[in-house]
Structure formats: C-alpha cells, structure tokens
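Quick one, tokens below:
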C-alpha cells in the first residue's frame, strides 16, 4: 500500500507529461508550454530519492548495492543542477543541458542494471520510467533552439522565384533599367543562397533571421526600382511581391529574440 501511494504522484506526473508532449489522442488543442527547468529538476530530485529508498527495500543484497550506487550518482547529478539554480538565479541553459545529458547516461546504466533482475526489480523498473521521461523533457527544454523545417522550404522557394525573376527581367527590361534591376536581383540570389546554406547547416534562428532581414532590405530596393517603370515592369512587380511575401513568412517563423 505504501508503495502504491508513493507511486501515485509519479503516475500523475507521467500522465501530465504525456499530455504536454503528445496531447490527447482525440483532440488537437493548442500546444501547452513545457515545464520550466526548475520544476523538472525538483521532480527529478523527489523521484530519485524515493527510488533510492525503494532499492534498499526491494534489493537488500549485493544487487541493491550496485543499483544503489548508480542511483546515488544520479542524485548527485541532480544536486549539481539544483546548486546551479540556487537562490532562484536561472542557470545557463547550456550548462543544465550538459548536466541532463550526463544524467541520461547514468539513467541508461540504471535501466540496464535493473533489466536483468527479474520480478524483484519490477516496481523499481516502473519507478524509473517517469524519471527518464522527466530528464528527456529537461533535455528538450534546455536544448539549443532549432529551426522550423519550413524555413528551408521557404528559402528554396524564394531562390527559385528569384532565378525566374532574373530571367524575366532580361526579357521585359532589355535596356539599362534591366541591368540595374538585374544587379539587385543577383544580390538577393546570393543572400538567399547564404540563408539557405545556414538553415541547412543548422545555424541558430537568430543567425538565419539576420540573413532574412538583410534580404528583405534588398527586396525593398527591387520593389522601389520597379515601382517607376510603368507597364514594362508590371509582371516583374507581381513576381517581386510574391518573393517579399515569402520572406515575410520566413521571418514570422523566426521571431526576434
């Protein structure tokens, strides 16, 4: 009965995390924010301490000594996290992420150690599951920001549209005006290539946003140059407007820090 009562918070927590991470199967509500690192570390500490007590009860032999040593190392890892957040001062997320990565390695060792202990370790294995889930969530919360996958797709589309615009400019403005506009488009093509390359190589959202902002300035210069060219540039202006809209959509995916 004592074990059941103790496991209720873990079960509730696991259920809560499942909703946070995946959402209910029958509906698709707006995504809920993930728990803050401080709360996750607190829950990790509570569950690991309870697990340590259960190890002494369920494995009062040499096996328990081995498993207990691993749990103790996990507890020490979490203590380091707590010390880094002492007095309510937020710890640098990269530091917490590194500590959570080290904790994940110890939890893997714990899982492997419990796997071969049969029914004696049944409840210990079950108690380990929500602890691993908590740490996985902590890794997600503290990990580096990633680019939405749509960024690369939008950059590809802009590059295609710009190349088509460059060809159309040579056709519709086959004079000095076309040369001026063509040079602006060439700059945009180069800027979009840099943006696309950065996005594919996993650059930070802030870095890719800077490329998109610089590109936006060059696109504005194209629109300004085309604005006074009358009907000769009618279709060029429409094409340029589509590219501007694509770049604005990309910027919306990369909000300012």
């Amino acid at each position: 009965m004592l074990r059941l009562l103790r496991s209720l918070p873990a079960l509730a927590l696991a259920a809560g995390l499942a909703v946070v991470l995946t959402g209910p199967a029958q509906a698709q509500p707006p995504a809920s924010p993930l728990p803050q690192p401080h709360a996750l570390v607190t829950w990790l500490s509570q569950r690991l301490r309870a697990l340590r007590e259960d190890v002494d009860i369920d494995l009062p032999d040499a096996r328990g000594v081995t498993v207990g040593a691993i749990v103790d190392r996990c507890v020490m890892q979490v203590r380091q996290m707590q010390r880094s957040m002492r007095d309510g001062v937020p710890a640098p997320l990269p530091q917490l992420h590194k500590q959570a990565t080290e904790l994940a390695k110890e939890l893997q060792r714990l899982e492997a150690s419990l796997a071969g202990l049969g029914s004696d370790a049944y409840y210990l294995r079950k108690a380990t599951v929500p602890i691993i889930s908590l740490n996985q969530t902590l890794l997600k919360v503290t990990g580096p920001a990633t680019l939405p996958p749509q960024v690369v797709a939008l950059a590809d589309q802009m590059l295609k549209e710009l190349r088509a615009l460059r060809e159309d400019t040579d056709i519709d403005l086959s004079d000095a005006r076309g040369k001026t506009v063509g040079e602006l488009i060439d700059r945009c093509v180069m800027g979009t290539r840099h943006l696309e390359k950065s996005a594919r190589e996993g650059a930070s959202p802030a870095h890719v946003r800077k490329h998109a902002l610089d590109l936006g300035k060059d696109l504005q210069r194209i629109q300004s140059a085309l604005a006074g060219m009358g009907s000769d540039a009618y279709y060029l202006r429409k094409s340029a407007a589509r590219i501007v809209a694509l770049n604005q959509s990309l910027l919306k995916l990369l909000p300012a820090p």
